[in-house]
Each structure stands twice: as structure tokens, then as C-alpha cells.
């Protein structure tokens, strides 16, 4: 119970509102029709966001004469080019939204070659946390239960990042074990 309260306090203080997202995801469970409606609306919203704020996608849509306002969002998505890491690397500034005030750089693991750096905004972080906790709940996890997380993390450079991660993990009752440092 103590850690559940700490989780809510951390969530409220940081403004991530993970708890509300978790409730939203849980509400959708089992409602295929509602999920399809929401998927279509959210895809439309993402395509419009990309059109207005991401130069790479605006150029693509203009070149292909696609209009995310009037066309079926699934059709628009099917006509956009498939993107790989090399395309992102060579056009990186044009993939960054011009309309996001908070951008946290994150890196892929590099398991298929050179790691790729991308940005996450608060909505991505919030959705990721909510889906993480929802997924755990399918196996009996309740907020505040202890989690031991085993994975390979790249070293954190700054002292502030280390302290922030330790505090966040303490408040969430998460204990990280780094697979790279284990024998």
C-alpha cells in the first residue's frame, strides 16, 4: 500500500498522469468495436500532427498529394514510404516535430548495428509507462507491487540522471538489474 501511494504521488508530481492512462487502457479491454473507432481517430490525429509539424512527412504527403483531413487514414498511411534507420539518420532534423517543447533523447540498443537516437515527448513516455503497467496487470500485478527488472541498460552519464532514476525506481518499487554487468 505504501508503494502504491508513492507511485500516485510521483505520477501526480511529475505530471505524467500514468494512472489516468492505465484506467483508459483498462476501460478499452474487450471492446473491439470501440478500439477500432479509437484507433482510426488516433491515426488521423497522428497523421495530421505529422503533416503540420514534421517536415519529412509534410513533404511526403504533399509530393504524394495525400490529405490527412479528407482521406481515410489507413489509405494515407499505406501510401507513405517505409522508413528505416538510415533514412532517419540522413534526415534526422526533418523527423523532429516543430511543435514539442519537451524532447527526451533515447537510444535504441544497437543490436542490429549502430544505435539510433530518437526523441520521446511526454505523451510517448506516459503511454509507454501505462502500457507497461497494464501488461503487467494481465499477469496479476497491482500498482505498488515490487518489480525486479532485468535488462541491458546503457550507462547513464550524468549524476543527476542516476539520482533521478534511483528515486523514480524507489517510488515505483522497481529494482533494476543490468544484464551487461552480471557474470
Structure write-up:
It is a single chain. The chain has helices at residues 2-14, 18-28, 32-53, 55-63, 73-79, 85-90, 92-95, 122-137, 159-172; strands spanning 104-107, 117-120, 147-151, 174-178. By secondary structure, the protein is mostly helical. The chain has a domain at 17-143: ANL, N-terminal domain (Rossmann fold). Strands 1-2 form a two-stranded antiparallel ribbon. A two-stranded parallel sheet has the order 3-4. The protein is globular. The protein starts with a helix and ends in a 5-residue tail after the last strand. The mean pLDDT is 83.
Quick summary of this structure?
The protein is mainly α and 183 residues long. It has helices at residues 2-14, 18-28, 32-53, 55-63, 73-79, 85-90, 92-95, 122-137, 159-172; strands at 104-107, 117-120, 147-151, 174-178.
Mean pLDDT equals 83
Strand content: 5-15%
The succession of helices and strands, N to C, reads HHHHHHHEEHEHE
What's the CATH architecture of the domain at 17-143?
3-Layer(aba) Sandwich
List segments where confidence is low: pLDDT < 50 over at least 5 consecutive residues: none
The helical percent reads: 55-70%
What structural category do the secondary elements indicate? mainly alpha
CATH superfamily of the domain at 17-143: ANL, N-terminal domain
Biggest sheet overview: 2 strands, antiparallel
* End-to-end distance: 35 Å
Query: In what order do the strands lie side by side in the largest sheet?
Result: 1-2
> What's the number of helices?
9
Radius of gyration: 19 Å
Output the CATH class name of the domain at 17-143.
Answer: Alpha Beta
Count of beta strands: 4
In CATH, the topology of the domain at 17-143 is named Rossmann fold
Shape: globular
Amino acid at each position: 500500500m505504501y508503494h502504491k501511494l508513492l507511485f500516485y504521488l510521483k505520477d501526480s508530481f511529475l505530471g505524467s498522469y500514468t494512472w489516468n492512462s492505465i484506467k483508459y487502457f483498462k476501460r478499452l479491454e474487450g471492446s473491439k468495436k470501440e478500439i477500432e473507432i479509437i484507433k482510426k481517430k488516433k491515426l488521423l490525429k497522428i497523421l495530421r500532427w505529422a503533416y503540420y509539424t514534421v517536415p519529412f512527412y509534410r513533404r511526403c504527403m504533399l509530393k504524394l498529394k495525400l490529405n490527412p483531413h479528407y482521406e481515410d487514414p489507413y489509405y494515407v498511411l499505406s501510401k507513405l514510404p517505409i522508413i528505416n534507420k538510415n533514412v532517419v539518420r540522413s534526415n534526422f532534423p526533418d523527423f523532429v516535430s516543430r511543435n514539442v517543447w519537451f524532447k527526451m533523447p533515447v537510444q535504441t540498443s544497437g543490436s542490429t548495428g549502430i544505435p539510433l537516437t530518437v526523441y520521446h515527448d511526454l505523451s510517448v513516455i506516459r503511454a509507454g509507462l501505462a502500457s507497461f503497467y497494464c501488461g503487467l496487470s494481465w499477469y496479476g500485478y497491482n500498482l505498488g507491487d515490487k518489480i525486479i527488472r532485468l535488462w541491458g541498460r546503457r550507462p547513464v552519464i550524468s549524476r543527476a540522471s542516476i539520482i533521478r532514476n534511483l528515486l523514480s525506481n524507489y517510488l515505483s518499487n522497481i529494482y533494476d538489474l543490468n544484464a551487461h554487468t552480471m557474470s
